[in-house]
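User: Fold this; tokens only.

Assistant: Input:
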Amino acid sequence: MAFFSSSSSSSSSSSIPILTLTFLTTLLSILVISHQQPVLNSAEQDSVYKVLESINSAIPWRILFPDDLCSSAPHGVVCDYFDDTTAAANVTSETTTETPHITELSFGYVSDYNPNPPCSPNSTLSPSLFTSFTHLRKLFFYKCFTESQVTIPDISPGFGSTLEELVFIDNPSIVGSLSGILGNFTSLRRLVLTGNGLYGEIPDGVGDLINLEQITIAANHFSGGVPVNFGKLENLKVLDLSHNDFEGTVPDSIGRLTGLLKLDLSYNRFTGKIPEGIKILQRLEFLDLSFNRFGNFGIPLFLGEMPMLREVYLSGNLLGGEIPEIWENLGGILGLGLSGVGLVGNIPGSMGVHLRSLCYLGLDNNKLEGTVPAVLGLLEGVREMNLENNQLSGKIPFTAKFTARVGKKLRLAGNPELCVEEGLISGKNSTRLGHLRKCKKPDIPNAVLLQGGSSVQLSSSPFMILGLLVFLSLHFGN
């Protein structure tokens, strides 16, 4: 009986934790249900499916992701929850509920770290994209429209008021104009449209998007000039209009973009003078005006007043003139490109003295002459130096260590009067510098004094040299 009683008591006590666990599980389920996040409304969910199907119809999106897309969605589809305050029925008080909406849509596989829904060669743009997402903050397409031409559809007036990032990268088959894209994007911070088929002029309305921090519209077919009202974009940090068909002069109002860190206008058809307004951009770190038609005003002296500059590229313009002495305050420059700008005169040694951080120097295809300053060989950070196709002469001042470090990126060809010491051409340097002629050894004969058909070698005594000078003066002075 004692044993039975003990066993019965043990069984009874062990059932208590089981009942407690069951009760807690039930209670937890009730709490989860009562606090379950609301689901995405069916209309917005269906619009997401339509957009996914338009970029890749071969994938069964509705089968793979049948549940609420705010709780289970492909990478690149992002939701957020917003407070929705409404008046309660027949009650004077108000109630606040959370309502989910799509806030980000990113398409086009980028990497394993950004496995966005992959696009197909036949990707299209669903009209739902520009009509159904009233809370969208980011829209991103990468290499989605590469074959069949896709025209950007009309955007409804109500779309885009919340959009902060509009990014289309490497979509050569997408066509349209900026005026058809921007709509009412009053909240836009980043406009990145690189490597697409977009065309037309920059609409004046861009100047009203005062929240813009980045405009990168490189490698399209944009034309016209830079709008004067760009100067209103006081929050702009990056302006990249490179590789387009822009033309005309660049307005001085660009100097009003005082927060600018990067200015890239390269590979266009801009003409006239490089605007003086650029010198006001005291925070500017990257300046690329290369391969335009700026001309005949020399290298701007105001660059010497911009100590924050790290990269300056002016190659391919018609600037002319000599290299100015402006480098004292530019010790932080890493890259300097002055190729093919019509430079004449010598390479100033001050470049080697002050540009101590230099990694790249391009002075090729000019009309520079004289010797290469020895101090250029003391720049320890240089990884590429191009002095090709000038009229430089004399012995190159670089050590074997310098030439080994720079390697094939030390370009000196096209300077017929430039020479290299024979001792420097060895090993790998024989292929790097072998195209240069060898410097001739100086031919300094021993001084002799002829006496009766025999020669007597002079000593190096200064008295003997003085005597020789007197002798020559007396016998040949007349």
